[in-house]
Amino acid sequence: MEFFFEVLIGGLLAGVMYSLVAIGFVLIYKASGVFNFAQGAMVLFAALTFVSLLERGLPFWGAFLVTLTSMVVLALLIERAVLRPLVNRPPIILFMATLGLSYMIEGLAQALWGAQVHGLELGIPDEPLEIHGMLISQFDLFAAGTAALLVIVLSFLFNRTRIGLSLRAVADDPLASLAVGIRLPRIWAVVWAAAGFVGLVAGLLWGARLGVQFSLSLVVLKALPVLIIGGFSSIGGAIVGGLIIGAAEKIAEIYLGPIIGSGIENWVPYVLALVFLLVRPAGLFGERAIERV
Amino acid sequence: MLYQEAGQLARRYAAERRIFRLRQDRIGLLLLLVFAFVGVPWLGNDYWFSAILIPFMVLSLAGLGLNLLTGFAGQLSLGSAAFMAVGAFAAYNLQLRVAGMPLLLSFALGGVIAGLVALVFGLPSLRIKGFYLLVSTLAAQFVVEWVLTRFSWFTNDNASGVITSPPLIIAGVDFSSPQGRYLLTLGLLVLLFWLGKNLVRSELGRNWMAVRDMDTAAAVIGIRLLKAKLLAFAISGFYLGIAGSLWAFAYLGTVEPHGFDLSRSFQVLFIIIIGGLGSVLGNFLGAAFIVLFPILLGNLSALLPVGVIDSGQLENLQKVLFGALIIVFLIKEPEGLARLWQRFRLRLRVWPLRY
Lengths: 293, 355
Fold this sequence. Notes:
By secondary structure, chain A is an all-alpha fold. Chain A has helices at about 1-30, 40-55, 60-85, 90-115, 140-160, 160-170, 175-180, 185-210, 220-230, 235-260, 270-280, and strands at about 130, 135.
């Protein structure tokens, strides 16, 4: 039983790491209705830039600030060059544009900083803690704490600030918010910059876990089922979805793996998400679309 | 001047309904087919057959398969490569395990099996819409790849998980030379495109387009969503399955399950974005672009002095350019290269006197 809880908690904490990536998606989807496939590429770009600056001798916070600035610049560029010309196009076109964007950002990141694997040391001890006989990774706890902090900051931003008010207005009804004088392009730039910030945090944690390399951009594939279960438009949903996926993946790996073979963690989240969707077609917390003919 | 319909009146309904109503188009197509079947095998060399023409044709076919599903029926899919893999591995196993199985029949049955698999993964489309549907096709992508690597039965217990092409012999004629493989692919391509073009003009094709534009509205006017969506998945799977067999046996010769990974699915998706969603001709244009672009870029960089661009950077540059091109296409010409061709034709019809 203790072993089961150890697996479960390990899985839940690993799931928080997925949520970190998923939150970036949710921010953008909420404010602009764009399903941003390039989030993984942004994670890669942020982590690679940060690590390369660190290796060139910048202090931690200096590198952090420079990377953050570059993410903001990237967001402004994306808003100007991609989103603005594609206003009022069907969502599927915007999705495909972000596919192109993810190729561009991946290529750019690797052209700038090279394709070799970089180690990233955040100074967090990685020895497991022993609590009630269960071994729990300190790093995972730290990641979970960061995620919690991020959610608190984001919900503060959304609920307590003026810009958050306009963000919520845009998410609710873009046309009406235009009518009351909210500048849509500025809102898009803000959410993409915020998603870039979330991508940077996710990139640092994932980079410290896996090493900063190309495969970081593939975490997008891990975040997708999380997003689906949680619903595209709910930050809380992204957290809950991450917990469910993380736990299910670990449990399946430990208990189902020996029966049907290893390597199942690639598709278990997807099948699970599919089952969830069959019951709730818009995810757990997603808004149900009302269609009028 | 030469390209006008003046005087070509349809006197029978059959003449009204034909695909190419312009005599010039029909003559042009005939000349093109004669050139492709007779001229090219005579002129081309092995490099052209193996490295350019065969992948171009197979990718066009795969593009048509995905276009039926995404461009015509409006169901976004990221699992194309999985259905290609199912087709290839099914055809391989049919050849291996059923004695005396004709090659073309095994390709067709491989396509049918791929269609059935696609049908299963298409079932959720009845309840899930839009981006949520991505999860179903991505599940197909990962499950199929896992099953094919996990169970060595599918690869006939090959130690490295690789399948090798069966002898390409049809009715006693050996098609395994580059020319033969080219002709085999071309024959299947022409047949399947003729079928596909007629399919999208049929009632089913019109139903698909209605579902694509708004499925609730389509249901209201009496189109059965169940039938339309599931047939789209099954037929798309059939086309992709045959494309997979050709990719494995006519192009590569040997292939492993990872040859059909997610990046292959993206490649097929890019073909239909660049070529044109909801266009049959666009698949050729998109596939030609995808095949020729890296070769062109490689040749261009070879012109530069040595050391300016190394091969790693070239790959990154290719990625950046590719992504940029996709975005430019979506902004400037969302209907793809096919639309450019259409506009060119309209210009040609009034040339040299513009209205």
